[in-house]
């Protein structure tokens, strides 16, 4: 049985499709680079009087800066969160849509499988990108970052459970498409199968080792597989 057949079998068993946002749906920071946003957040913290731990000062991922903020500046979490949301909205204006994702959403919905975006990015930015791309109305829901509670972001399983609640299915009846180990771990802890989006052998190995049931090289591969699944 080749990879395509295994992927089709996995999709056939699913009653709903969950998509991570940054990667499977778009490159949110393609126009406004993530390291630039991370520097802005760190500068905001310093200006507000926070002392950055050395490991935080080296971070170039804004989500990691946000995740660590409660550890050393809990009183500034709301300030950092609001600033990050504003930067995400700015980034949404130039985010590059992932080739094939529009077809993935169409094929999944046409087969009777609702689509929910499950992301550590904020809901307003996700909505803005999906509206600009023209497929917001095809989505059954969006589970964005739990504002004020960064510890509940993926890899915590809560986002998967929230998405299941939207479409009324069990985690085992879904498939999450993601491109990070946090996606795979979140799905595994929730009891949901996952498919890893990997553009290199190294990424593929990392996603497989953290729980990916199958791997795809791009979203067009997923769209082609969805054309071959049975309707619910």
TrEMBL record:
Top-rank taxon, per record: Bacteria
Keywords: Hydrolase
Cellular compartments per GO CC: cytosol
GO biological process: DNA repair
GO MF annotation terms: phosphoglycolate phosphatase activity
Family matches, as Pfam families: Hydrolase
Ranges in coiled-coil conformation: none
Gene3D superfamilies (alphabetical): HAD superfamily/HAD-like
Name used for this protein in its record: Hydrolase
Species for this entry: Acrocarpospora macrocephala
């Amino acid at each position: 049985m080749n990879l395509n057949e295994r992927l089709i079998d996995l999709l056939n068993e699913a009653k709903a499709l969950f998509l991570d946002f940054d990667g499977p749906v778009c490159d949110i920071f393609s126009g406004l680079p993530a390291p630039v946003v991370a520097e802005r957040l760190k500068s905001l913290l310093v200006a507000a009087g926070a002392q950055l731990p050395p490991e935080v000062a080296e971070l170039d991922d804004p989500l990691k800066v946000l995740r660590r903020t409660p550890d050393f500046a809990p009183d500034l979490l709301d300030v950092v969160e609001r600033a990050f949301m504003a930067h995400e909205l700015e980034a949404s204006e130039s985010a590059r849509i992932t080739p094939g994702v529009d077809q993935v959403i169409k094929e999944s919905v046409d087969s009777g499988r609702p689509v929910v975006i499950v992301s550590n990015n904020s809901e307003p930015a996700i909505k803005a990108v999906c509206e600009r791309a023209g497929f917001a109305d095809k989505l059954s829901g969006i589970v964005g970052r739990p504002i004020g509670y960064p510890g509940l972001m993926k890899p915590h399983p809560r986002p998967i459970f929230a998405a299941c609640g939207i479409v009324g299915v069990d985690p085992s009846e879904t498939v999450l498409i993601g491109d990070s180990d946090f996606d795979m771990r979140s799905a595994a802890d929730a009891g949901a199968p996952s498919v890893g989006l990997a553009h290199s052998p190294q990424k593929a190995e990392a996603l497989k080792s953290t729980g990916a049931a199958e791997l795809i090289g791009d979203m067009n591969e997923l769209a082609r597989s969805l054309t071959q699944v049975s309707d619910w």
